[in-house]
Amino acid sequence: MANPIEGLKPEGVWKYFAEISKIPRGSKNEKQIAAYVMQKAKEFGLEAKQDKFMTVVVRKPATPGYENRPMICLQGHLDMVCEKNKDKVHDFEKDPIELVRDGNIMKANGTTLGADNGVAVATNLAIMEDKSLVHGPLEFLFTIDEETGLTGASNLKPGFIQSKILMNLDSEEEGELYVGCSGGKNTIGVWKAAFENSPGKSVAAALHVKGLKGGHSGLEIDKGRGNSLKIINRALLALTDIGARLASIEGGNKSNAIPREAEALVFLPAAKLNQAKKVVAAFNTVAKAELASVEPDLVVELEVKKDLKKGKVIKKQQQALLLKTIAGLPHGVIKMSADIAGLVETSTNVAVIRTEKGKITLTTSQRSSVASEILEICQSVVSVFELGGAKVQTTEGYPGWKPNLASPILKQAKATYQQLYGKEPAVKAIHAGLECGIIGEKYPGMDMVSFGPTLQAVHSPDEKIYIDTVDKFWKFLLGILKNVN
């Protein structure tokens, strides 16, 4: 098999991207990747330290003659979202990510690629190693658990980094500079499950929703993509009208991903099995028509489980409350920004549902660049949960990053991009949580900007990075490092 990174530029970045793709680094499983960074710093003769949470900082001295330039911190996170297609056999605890090159696209074989934020890790390693580069004093900050808890950034201590300028390498559109981000919280509803025996003369069947694109619950929330939990709930409500009893419901994997697949086990009156098949087939047609332009591969289907004769089902009253709650929960864009064209200001995502022993858990996530609006949408979600009989908890969440259009590092970045590529980069805020919000809170006065190469469909097995944008991103970054004074 051909080497997928052969001949790619910049060579150092792709070399390290391939290397770290071999190392398991799902959120909360960063021990090996953190140790790898520490080992590389040692090999390069650079100062490095690690806090008790495994966040790493490495320092590289300035190029001779550049010692008086301001110190800059280049920051990215070590962890990645671990998502795979349902039929893909892959153990994220030990199996390497299989890189697949398709023309100008690098992707993975049936799993997330990990370019979010492996591209920052690989870029930092390449700069750490390369002694020919021109720059002032540098720090490289490798945080952990960005995707599920922002644990690394949240636990940074005073003095761990010394820079007053930070460039976050975790944005996903080449030619765009980000100067603000949303904050967010998760709101979780839990029902103490009440079960009883399935009715007599019933047939077990699995209801499936699959083929959706999913994606990042912030960056793709305005694309109008299907939500598997909302879709399967509509089908379940239709089946309930003919006596279906719910045994379990599962769907979604991450609070920060739009759910792509869902499955429910139901027991149907045997005499109404054919009617149930027609109900699901009709709903499949309706759902596909509604989402035809954005979800062409959507499938809603019913699979009879002939080997399952009886089981436990949720009591009728609780089933009704659960399905009404899911129906009532808002999902998608709540408000667009009045100040920045095209920016989603506030949104919510119905994300993950699990039926476990004795309980049913439904996780949702809320985002906004306005702190008071996070509170408002959380209140709406909490109210729906409580009306549906769930016990509710809201996570502490993370702060947003308020744009500073007078930022000196933004001014330098704009000038460098204009010099290199003959046009001004777009200046934007992002409807996603960047660690800049927390880092800015931890280190008041930090001047920050965020940028990166072009990625698409992050947090899903369709994740891809456009190869040509990596070289442009690299040259842009090195240009800023050389020009800052």
Return the CATH architecture of the largest domain: 3-Layer(aba) Sandwich
Number of strands: 23
Specify the CATH homologous superfamily of the largest domain. Answer: Zn peptidases
Biggest sheet statistics: 6 strands, mixed
Helix content: 25-40%
- Low-confidence stretches are none
Shape: elongated
Cα-atom radius of gyration: 24 Å
Number of domains as seen in the coordinates: 2
CATH topology of the largest domain: Aminopeptidase
Give the percentage of residues in beta strands.
25-35%
User: What structural class is derived from the secondary structure elements?
Assistant: alpha+beta
Number of helices: 11
Please tell me the overall pLDDT: 96
Strand order of the largest sheet: 1-2-6-3-7-21
- CATH classification class of the largest domain: Alpha Beta
| Distance between the amino and carboxyl termini | 46 Å
